[in-house]
Amino acid sequence: MDQALLKGYGDRPSLPGGPVLNSAIDAAQRRLLRLQSEEGYWGAELNGDATLESDAVMLMHYLGDVDKDRQRKLLNFVLSEQNPDGGWWIFRGGPSDINATVKAYFALRLAGFTEEDPRVRKARHRILEFGGLEACNRYTKFYLAIFGQYDWNRLPSMIPEIMLFPESSRFLNIYRISAWTRTIVVPMLILYALRPSVKISFSIHDLILPYDPPGATSFKNAFWRSCFKFLDRAMGLYNRFDVRW
Question: Maximum distance among all alpha carbons in the chain?
Fold first, then answer.
């Protein structure tokens, strides 16, 4: 091991956990240094919950270029991560999450799985227990809108023209958003303006149920919801003019 990398190694203040915590940190540091390549980087498999695999299946169907073998492998992984209650987690050992569950369910349906499959049926039941599609976050609803399963007009208004604002702009500046978020938001701005619609052979509109988000009735939340609704309507009105720059 390069001794230069160990300069200052272990020179840290004592921590509340005492010797046990310090020993664990030392072991983790040494393990990481052993795994580092000679060039200075770490290489490993990117692994997490099943949402990335579900997204990949949706992307293939959106592009109209489905690799059947790859899709099978992706969905084998998705199914292997299903919780006993029919949903999917977002951290290992955690409870089922509505967004991960809807994505997995929809990816399975796109691939041809039907309600006759008990795993799909359990997933559907879990989605209904969550409150249906309205319980999802905006990202998931956005994906569903691309496939005609959610109304574009019920999504928050987005204006691609935000990209034209200078960096000196204090509030309307895309660069005030974190880098990883920009990689999501910028394509979403373009897709929102184009509003593509991929035709599919089934519908999940019956999963759209009346839904009241937790805490929606408090004064503070009601006030901010009113503010955001006003801004949303203003941006929606702007979008209707279809201004060309």
Answer: 66
Backbone torsions φ then ψ of 117, nearest 5 degrees: -75, 125
The SS3 assignment for 32 reads: helix
**Structure tokens that stand for 96 in this block:** 């089922």
Per-residue pLDDT tens digits for 86-123: 999 999 999 999 999 999 999 999 999 999 999 999 99
Whole-number Cα distances in Å, 95 to 86, 121, 138: 11, 18, 20
pLDDT digits (tens, 9 = 90+) for 148-199: 999 999 999 988 888 888 888 877 788 888 998 999 999 999 999 999 999 9
Which 3 state secondary structure label does DSSP give 165? coil
The Cα 172–Cα 165 span in angstroms is 6
pTM assigned to the model? 0.78
Q: Which residues contact 119 (CB under 8 A, 6 or more apart)?
A: 79, 82, 86, 108, 113
